[in-house]
Each structure stands twice: as C-alpha cells, then as structure tokens.
Amino acid sequence: MKTSVSAIQNDSNVCADIIGFDFSSYDDADIAAVRSYWLQYGVIRFRATDITDQQQVDFSRHFGDFVIHPKQLQEGGHPIHREILVISNVMKDGKPSGALGNSEATWHTDTWFYERPPAGAILRAIEVPAAGGDTYFLSTYQAFETLPEELRSAVEGRQIFFQNVYDKTGKLRLGKGEPTSADFREWSGVVHPLVRSHGETGRKALYLGGTSEGAWIVGLPLDESNDLISRLWEHTTNTPEVFVQKWSVGDIVMWDNRCTMHRRDSFDPNTIRIMHRTTTSGERPI
C-alpha cells in the first residue's frame, strides 16, 4: 500500500508537521506512516483540521486502548464521548465546564503517578485565546543522551518513587485518603526507573515525572536525592531545543508521553480556551 502522508520537521528536534493525512478517509498505510513519524519525532502536529469529536475518537483508537484521565471522572468529562477529556476555563452555573482551567502548568509527563503511564495524548484546539495558552515540548531522549558523565553514572540503575496521594496543587487525588505519616516515602505511590527504555523504539529517556515534590530516588538519603533530582530537572528543562505550539483553532498535536515533557503558558482568564484531548494506554516503564 502507498501513502501520501509525509512530515516536515519544525524548528526543534522534537516536532514535525504531518502533511497529506485526511481524517475522513485513511487506510492502514496512512496510520502506519503517522505512527512512524510520531515515534521518530516524539511530537507531531496536524494544522487547521476540521474534524468532529467522533473522528478524533476514531483516529485515536488506532494508537491503543483509551486511558481515562482522572479529571474525566470529575469536571472534565465529555457529555457524549467518555474517551474525551474536555479542557476548558469556561464557567457554567458557577462551576467549571471542563478540567485544568487557565492556570500555568510546569514541565511534566502525563499521569506519571500511574503504574502504566499513557503512551500518548492527542490534543485538539476548539477555541483559543488570541495570546497565551501556548504549549511547550522537549525531548527526554535528548535529556538522557546529553547527561554529563557524572550525572549519567549517578542515574545508572536507579529507580524513582512518586507519591500519588496529592496532586501538584496540593489536593487529594480521587480515591485517596489523608496520609498518616509525615514522610511521603511511606505514602501510597509508584516506583519507576529513572532512565526508561521506550517500549517501541528501545531508546533510553530520562524519566522525571511531573514534579520534584514527593519524588525520591530509591535508596538515597533524602537530601542527596533532592539534590540529584534538582540537578536532573535543571539539566532537562534548561535546553534551547524546545518546540512551542502557538495554537490555532483546529490544530491537533499528538505527543509520545514516554519520551517527551510538556508545559502550558497561562493566559488571560477573561478569554476562552477549550481543548479536547484523547489519551492512549502505554506499557509499564522498564
């Protein structure tokens, strides 16, 4: 089978624009081409699409089983498609009509506190402000591959613990109770390798999750762990190789959660930002 799908690399090492993909008519070869570019770059973008929620769900299904984000069980649920997380700062009857609102986000991988974090996310712009709300992406392959020798030796064979009781805003996660210990290392959480091997490409990527708070490099004294984590975060995020997505209505960005990190800018709360996101399942980090 032949395909007309191609990719043009953007101004970083982490994103490419997909050209020639038709969301209303595609075949297995087209999907295979998209997957290949996704694995190659980590982030791919479709510009100015005009598709329905159903088409987004149908497309996403080709990349794995759906993962229900915690916010989909709360304010971020879609009225028809349970697969879609609604990200919105619009208020209705005094309550949020979607999740995540308009607060500034820091660098993170998605739901790093899961045993099996998602492989990918597909985010579509429904309504966007004139300024702000941009999304930034970086490669955690690059973060690992450019580690100074001292840091590379320090992370070799190490595991990192992430507590999963509180979210980054300090709120209890759904289904979690207040911890009885003051030491977060004794709380409910998950342990992942600090350097993970991608389940499809085999390449190694640094895995820092979503915050240095409530994270501990297993086996190290806490002060040594905190120092090493701080240095790894500085190394990872202090890079010029960042792709900035300045959203237009209809843009779709699909990222590989196993080898990238992202963050979002804040924006004027008097403007509106509505996004629809689908999330696909991944393997347990190894």
UniProtKB/TrEMBL annotation:
Please state every residue range assigned to the domain named TauD/TfdA-like: 15-279
Q: Which Gene3D superfamilies match?
A: Clavaminate synthase-like
Kindly state which keywords UniProt assigns to this record, in alphabetical order. Answer: Dioxygenase, Iron, Metal-binding, Oxidoreductase, Plasmid
GO MF assignments: dioxygenase activity
Family matches, as InterPro entries: AtsK-like, TauD-like_sf, TauD/TfdA-like
What's the EC number here? 1.14.11.-
PANTHER family under this entry? Answer: ALPHA-KETOGLUTARATE-DEPENDENT SULFONATE DIOXYGENASE
Q: Which family does the record claim for this protein? A: Belongs to the TfdA dioxygenase family.
> Which protein are we looking at?
TauD/TfdA family dioxygenase
